[in-house]
TrEMBL record:
GO terms for molecular function: metal ion binding; metalloendopeptidase activity. Coiled coil: none annotated. The keyword Repeat does not apply. Its cofactor is Zn(2+). This is M48 family metalloprotease. Residues 1-21 form the signal peptide.
Length: 489
């Protein structure tokens, strides 16, 4: 994972509450703009890449429409809107004017006014100067930070250095959470921008309610699903309270129920969109991670959660944390592990035990465990490297309590295997299917088509913002998640 998220100094700037498109106004800080430009490619790579085509162009057009009322000079060039190919529901922004929204968040929306508010809210964070000091990063250590600090110096920028970057940036992402007052201010400003742009302010409470309902559903699903939400998925907490507040503001505006919604256009833009994981990045299904293109699979221990990224999978549980990744490597397994262990301690000297050799599911493998002194005490750090093919190595790096070694992850280590072509071909993406309700369709009959093993009705109701006793009318458009055909890049 190569995320390089920009964090900026807080600025006490209040955005003007524009009533018409602003082509004057203040300029964004050139330093922040330059930083955002430098970090954009890394952030996009971290979050699954940027979508292109009509859907991305649509997001850009809506973003520019609301940004015109933010009071920032030259809004057409000051802001940049990116649709991320991510399975996490979120939108985020950095101070240099770069706004990001995920395709997964879009799947929870039901019309353009909801998209307009989500983008306007992020525009407002930029226009109001909401930001967090870099110095706070050091005040929030995590086990991921410990893992990254231990593994950060691997020679040649190997897997360990990518762990270090990811761990540090995950901590930075955690700090993207704005204060309650900043969230409320961004909601207020965002609603004013969208109203000025001609949208129905109902989009604000509607999308916040959708997020709240989805969070409640995910909490019910948790325990059957081994997916861990990354830190950046929680940058906008307390959606329920924000939804109630936004209803009051929408009513006070006198515009509730009037203005643009463009429901049909919005739903058409969603038709065919991926939902959940992109198979090109691997699929989390229960306790298993399967990558059809690499033809590999492994399973995590009971009770452990996974977080799928572009270049690595992070595994977290009560007894330790691990990451899986790899790629091209021309040396031997022993040499690789020696190089890793030589850098584990940084300036401290640690023992370098000889790697042990074994065979796991027909794969040549080597492993070693060493002791390192982390900031909160000694820990065991283990590396298991697998010779996947000539010139290709995949590996787990694990951190556990001192004395635990690889024990907590023994079942995971032994589960890595090559899958057959038939198994790989059987993996299909979930996609959004926008359907027209027929005379015989019911909520239950459409929910039965959802491409999930459980909670089909609950997922369908949440996806379409429907009440449990809702009745559908013929001709109505609704969203159904079905199995589709993979896109080939």
């Amino acid at each position: 994972m190569r995320l390089a998220l920009l964090l900026i100094s807080a600025a006490a700037v209040t955005a003007p509450l524009a009533a018409s498109a602003q082509y004057g106004g203040r300029m964004l800080d050139p330093r922040l703009v330059a930083e955002a430009q430098r970090e954009h490619a890394g952030l996009v790579q971290e979050y699954g890449g940027a979508e292109t085509g009509q859907r991305a162009a649509y997001v850009d057009s809506v973003g520019r429409r609301v940004a015109a009322y933010s009071g920032i000079a030259n809004p057409g060039s000051a802001y940049r809107f990116t649709l991320l190919n991510s399975a996490v529901e979120n939108a985020l922004s950095v101070g240099g004017g770069y706004i990001y929204v995920t395709r997964q968040l879009m799947t929870l929306m039901n019309d353009e006014s909801e998209l307009a508010f989500s983008l306007a809210h992020e525009v407002a964070h930029v226009a109001a100067g909401h930001a967090i000091s870099r110095q706070q990063v050091a005040q929030r250590p995590s086990i991921g930070t410990i893992l990254g600090s231990i593994l950060g110096g691997i020679v040649g920028g190997g897997f360990g250095s990518s762990i270090a970057q990811m761990s540090q940036r995950n901590d930075q992402l955690r700090l993207l959470s704005f204060s309650r007052d900043q969230e409320f201010q961004a909601d207020t400003l965002g609603m004013r921008y969208m109203i000025a742009a001609g949208y129905d302010p109902a989009g604000a409470p509607n999308v916040l309610t959708a997020l709240s309902r989805n969070s409640a559903l995910q909490a019910r699903i948790q325990g059957r699903d081994n997916r861990e939400l990354p830190e950046w998925a929680s940058t906008h907490p307390d959606s329920a309270n924000r939804a109630m507040r936004s209803v009051q503001e929408a009513r006070a505006s006198g515009r509730l129920g009037s203005g643009v919604t463009n429901r049909t256009t919005f739903l058409q833009s969603l038709d065919g969109a991926y939902v959940d994981d992109d198979p090109e990045q691997g699929i989390i299904d229960g306790r298993s991670f399967t990558h059809p293109d690499l033809r590999m699979q492994f399973s995590v221990p009971v009770g452990y959660l996974m977080q799928n990224g572009t270049d690595a999978v992070t595994i977290t549980g009560s007894a330790g944390k691990a990451q899986f990744g790899g790629g091209g490597y021309t040396g031997t397994l022993d040499t690789y592990i020696y190089r890793v262990l030589q850098e584990l301690g940084g300036s401290q000297r640690i023992a370098l035990p000889p790697p042990q050799r074994t065979v796991i599911n027909g794969l040549e493998a080597a492993y070693a465990t060493t002791r390192a002194n982390a900031s909160n005490g000694p820990v065991d750090v283990s590396v298991v490297a697998y010779q996947w093919a000539p010139g290709t190595v995949y590996h787990f790096v694990m951190i556990t309590a001192a004395g635990s070694g690889m024990g907590p992850f023994a079942s995971m280590i032994s589960s890595l295997r090559k899958i057959t072509q038939a198994e790989a071909s059987a993996i299909r993406p979930r996609v959004m299917d926008v359907v027209t309700v027929g005379p015989r369709d019911t909520v239950q009959s459409l929910a039965d088509r959802m491409a999930y093993r459980d909670f089909k009705l609950d997922r369908f109701l949440t996806l379409n913002a429907l009440a449990p006793n809702a009745r559908l009318a013929p001709g109505q458009k609704v969203k159904v998640v079905v199995y589709g055909v993979r896109r080939r890049s």
